[in-house]
Amino acid sequence: MRLPIPFRETLSGFKSLLIGMRITLGQFFKPSITVQYPRQTLKMPARFRGRIELIFDQATGKSRCTACLLCQRACPSNCIAVEGARTEGEKHKHVTDYKLDFTMCSLCGLCIEACPFDAIQFTKVYNAVSFSRDGLNNLDLVREIETKRKAWLQTHPPPAPGPAASPAPRQPQPEASSP
Amino acid sequence: MSNLLSIEPVRILTYLVGICAFVGANAAYLVLAERKIAGRIQRRPGPNEAGYGGWMQPFADVLKLFAKQVMIPPGTDILLYCAAPLMVMAPPLMCLAVVPFGESLVARNLDIGLLFVFAFGSINVMALMLGGWASRNKYSIISAARVVSQNVAYEIPMLLVVITLLMVAGTLDLNELIRQQAGGFWNWNLLRVWVNPLMPVTFIIFFICMLAETNRAPFDMAESESELVAGAFTEYGGMGFGVFFMAEYSNIVLGCCLGTVLFLGGWQSPLPLAALSGPLWGPVWFLLKMYALIFTVMLVRWTFPRTQFYGLLNLSWKILIPLSLFSLLLTGAMMKLPLVLQRLF
Amino acid sequence: MIASKESLADGPDGQAPQETFILNLGPQHPATHGVLRVRTTMDGEWIKRAEPVIGYIHRMHEKMGENRTLAKFLPNPSRIDYLSAMHYTHAFVGAVERAAGIEVPPRAEYIRVITSELNRIASHMVWWGALLSDLGGLTPFLYAFDDRELILDLLEGLCGARLTYCYYRFGGLCNDVDDEFLQGTRAFVKHMPPRLKMYRDLVTDNIILRKRLEGIGPISAEMCRKYGATGPVIRGSGIAYDVRRAEPYSVYPRLDFQIPVYPECDSMARYLVHMAEMEQSLRIIEQALDQLPAGPVMGKVPRVLKLPPGDTCYAVEAARGRFMVRIVGDGKDTPYRVKLRTPCFSNLSLFEEASRGMILPDALAMLGSLDLVIPDIDR
Description:
Chain A is an alpha+beta fold. Chain A is built from 6 helices and 7 strands; from the N terminus they run αβββαββαβαβαα. Helix content of chain A is about 30%, strand content about 15%.
């Protein structure tokens, strides 16, 4: 026996409602899948694009940056400002000032691709925040390198300046460490 | 204790405080329960920061709402604007006076209890309409108009269903209605198919009408937040909005209480065992059934999209009213059938 | 209920005529998903005229393209339609490659197709969730985002960004795919069909949704042609127009897929087109993974990229329709003109005509089914 169309529609519609409720009820008893962010964090993937940083070369204890300004030119947002200086007897310049305006950066990665010396890379910093605009629009990447260099110097003492000098102090002076 | 309760002022005061506390606690914690249930359905934990598992959340919410300024936008009808949140709380507070939570746990055992409930049950519609009208906001006015036509449409099948039950029970006394459903879950009105084979359908009609009367999804035309911003509550802020919010849940409690009384046997135990029935078990069964219904209401909300406005009216006028009328006639016929047969043979 | 011609017109001084009122939907309204403003003249709940007011998020992308070198414009296309960033980058990169005659290695093209189709599924999922939340059902939104998260994780592992990928380069890609991505994509292709069935049971077959979408917001094929509507909108009106077939690009001609077409012209047809497209995208991804050749992912590109004088167009089928980049070079390293033809602009422009005489919730359901991304309209 076939029911008239309105009855069939009502019945099939009601059935579709019950199916929907069965699905949501099924989901109700499954565990939740959210990450409780401040308490749990996810591991950032290897290629994650955080803000850029200068790579600290463990072999030389310096940045590889030669202040060639290619990254500065490649940047679509003009958020990189690099300055360098030349040391006597070295082939390349070295970086003295690397300012990043992170408020303008679009994390496109063109600077990293432009760099011929592999001197910059993305960090895994995903929660860069600041209480004022100044905290993000004038990041000094060279200072970060210097901080790392201080830690590096703990394990890599500078070569002794001469044979006449007293045994090299384990704690080098901070002034002496700046390049 | 029972002597003390028989003194009239003490009784009134006790139940007044009790009902206010019951409504308040339910309104506060059903909001939390709804958010938790919505969270579980959507595979997230829901509010879990305030207190262990989020149990302090209602306090945080209320504190926030109290701290907000009560805005009265210019151009509103101030009296109506302020009266609406008060009136919307009226039906649950009034009607719970006659709802029997246990055989003797009832504030006022009126013999016209059902009539009383339906007399006061629709005041919240007027409150929503007044609130929407008085806020002088286009969204609110559209919403107010929707609320009225929706509730007028759904009052009819609801009353037809209740009349069906009245014909079966022959009484307006809610406690008497429950007593008639004694003796196991197969004697509940929900499953009394020998009285009327359409009894489960009647329950579903009642449930749908209850959803529509309390403006719950999928019939939340009053709020319909993706179309009318917040519908009738758009201009309300602070505790004005909070009261509307609490009233929504209080009205659900009332609707589910009524569903429990009329269809699910109220305080009767589902199995006719002496160990499971008694004055202490009564409220337990009642609340269990009521909260199961409330859970279903919430599950429905978090499963379905909102109905169309005219689809909602179509559902009422083209499906629910004819069905409930048919059920009414069928019940009448089946009640008279034995008499007719007796007379014939 | 079609209003008469006179009553459609505004009264003097732009005021609403008698017995009607003006309702502003947006620029901040829960149904407009962004800063779109729809100025509606209402008669009760009936819409007499709904006029979209756009431009709140105009960011001069075309002008930016003319003022900077080609490479520097590369991050921009992803920002135009943030939900289908891959397609938009593909169109721009493709236009430059076509103009400068750069060869793209086949491996790069296949990876472009895989990532584009993943992006299409993610975009359709957002649309699906957003449409349902427009219609008042909030749970499907979360389910869609649950699955979309898998795609975003895959693409994040691939290129480091979750939304504005900037993954394609002139002549190839910025890096090759790893095994993790390939295995993850295969797992995702396996994971999706049961989820799509769940979507169907939960939402598509639901009587309330059907009542809300069936027969609502009819857009005839003629109206689609008149306004230049593309994508799921035109395919929901019975025209099998898909750029992947009509103007084949990349390696789409080598892949076997169908173009879902529904002739009902209503919102439900557009809905079903979206749902069927997700299945087809899964098919495309599976085939592309099977055919993925080995080799480099970067072709030969001159160090300084200069556009030869001339006029080049490159169109792709983005998640919302035909996105075309027209690029005019004059021998310099900056283009003379960049024209971006965005699908949502055309799809929105038919809303004014199509929504006449509709009731407000239906109009919003139809607006949702048009799948609008506001930055794409304003660009």
